[in-house]
Amino acid sequence: MKRVHIIGAGIAGLSAAIALAEAGHAVTIYEAGPAAGGRCRSYFDRGLGCRIDNGNHLLLSGNRAAMQYVQGIGARSSLDGPGEPLFPFIDIGSGERWTLRPNRGRIPWWIFFRRRRVPGTRPRDYLRLLALRRAAVDDTVAEVLGPGGMLYHRLLEPLAVAALNTRPEQGLARLLGKVLDESLLRGGKACIPLFPRQGLSESLIDPAIAWLAAHGGELHTGRRIAGLGIAGGRITALATPDGPAPVSDGEAVVLAVPPWVATDLLPGLAAPDAFEAILNIHFRISADAGTAGFIGVIGGTAEWVFVKQEVVSITVSAANHLVDLDADDIAARVWPEARLALMLPEPMPPVRVVKEKRATFAATAVQERRRPGARTGIANLALAGDWTATGLPATIEGAIRSGRAAAALLSGAAR
Predict the structure, then answer these.
(1) What is the pLDDT of residue 415?
(2) Domain ranges (residues) in the chain
(3) pLDDT value of residue 377
(4) What percentage of residues in the chain have a pLDDT greater than 70?
(5) Arithmetic mean of pLDDT, 83-101
(6) pLDDT band for position 170 (50/70/90)?
(7) CB 313 within 8 Å of CB 306
């Protein structure tokens, strides 16, 4: 058994660590921040006086790698959800409400029932989704699905923004197609929403750290790796705050950091260099979102409204056009929409606006070509992260798959 050094304790790094530990390797994880989790973590917000997630992440039952991950770390029971494929929406302009309800099987008979499909659409409209499978390499979502019509306005556009964190006019059609191939086009059984009952850390991070500790893994937080020693075509040392940490013969390294950190550590690495922001606005107020626990917003600034234990949490994706606004202005824009969606009282409660300026790479054709695979030109080094060439946009599912791919690549080198 040889050791693998993992730089970065986000979902990708933890996924790689678990896969390597399962294969019998010793793992040491170095995390620059004070806690593991990256974008998928929870913390106590002193201003709100409660615990919040730094972002909102919705899993689907069809996310096979994510489901295996939570099952493997013993956290499956920590996920909650309606137990059936349902997605409630409200149109801010008209006030109309509906719930998308795909049937569980692959044959989509649900599109023939008005109460199950998007209002104002016809069954044949849904055939447009199949065009994603014929999309050319650089086609955008808007080019393939075509703007206009109720289906585009009330379902396809918001799905594209949520999945790609990029506007459909620039977002890559084949990435959206991959997401839908693994969810809606597989039937409702693959579209059951799941979210942490307590928080992201409690479901996705803390159980993983506990699992790794039980299997001999080491996690060092507050330990930034400032450089990589390279000699003879392999990593020989890591530059830590305490001095060089040797990487012995037969040992390996997984670089599971954001792309801008990876390019600093590996000059010459081609990686995504254009990014999209995400805003998460957390209001300290209790509410009821019904069976689903969330609601999609059409025609507003807000896109998804999540109801958690003590917080109503709003997500705005592809938010480069809003991210530099004052936090109070952002909160004032979305609070009326949250009020309408959840029928809340008028006074705006205490709020925390979390801005992720470089939340994900922009899911465009140009950036897709800059996504590297797990393999590098260095024999004992592999890359992991949702920004690598996973075939998916920047999602939890993609991050977990990237960690597994890096682990599989290095398992032989680490023996």
Answers:
(1) 42
(2) 3-41+200-273+364-411, 42-62+274-360, 96-190
(3) 92
(4) 99
(5) 97
(6) very high
(7) yes
Identify the architecture of domain 3-41+200-273+364-411 in CATH: 3-Layer(bba) Sandwich (3.50)
CA distances from 365 to 71, 164, 187, 320, 362 (A): 34, 12, 28, 18, 9
Q: Where are the beta strands (DSSP E) in 210-347?
A: 218-221, 227-231, 234-240, 243-246, 252-255, 275-284, 294-298, 304-307, 311-316
Do the beta carbons of residue 165 and residue 360 sit within 8 Å? yes
- Nearest in space to 333 (alpha carbons), one of 308, 316, 312: 316
Among 401, 368, 394, 190, CA closest to 276: 394
| The three-state (H, E, C) secondary structure of 23-60, written as one string | CCCEEEEEECCCCCCCCCCEEEECCCCEEEECCCCCEE
The reported pLDDT for the residue numbered 290 is 86
Q: What are phi and psi of 223, to 5 degrees?
A: -125, 85
Contact 396, 66 (CB under 8 A): yes
pLDDT at 412: 65
**Residues facing residue 351 across a β-bridge:** 283
Residue 389 backbone dihedrals phi, psi, to 5 degrees: -80, 80
The backbone torsions φ and ψ at residue 208, rounded to the nearest 5 degrees and listed phi first, read -65, -40
Summarised one tens digit per residue, pLDDT across range 329-343 is 999 999 999 999 999
Whether domain 42-62+274-360 has CATH 3.40.50.10420: no
Nearest to 259 by CA among 116, 377, 359, 159: 359
Average model confidence (pLDDT) for the chain?
96
**Residue 414: predicted pLDDT:** 44
The whole-model pTM stands at 0.96
Q: Counting every residue, how long is the chain?
A: 415
Q: What share of the chain is helix, strand, coil (3-state, %, to 5)?
A: 30, 25, 45
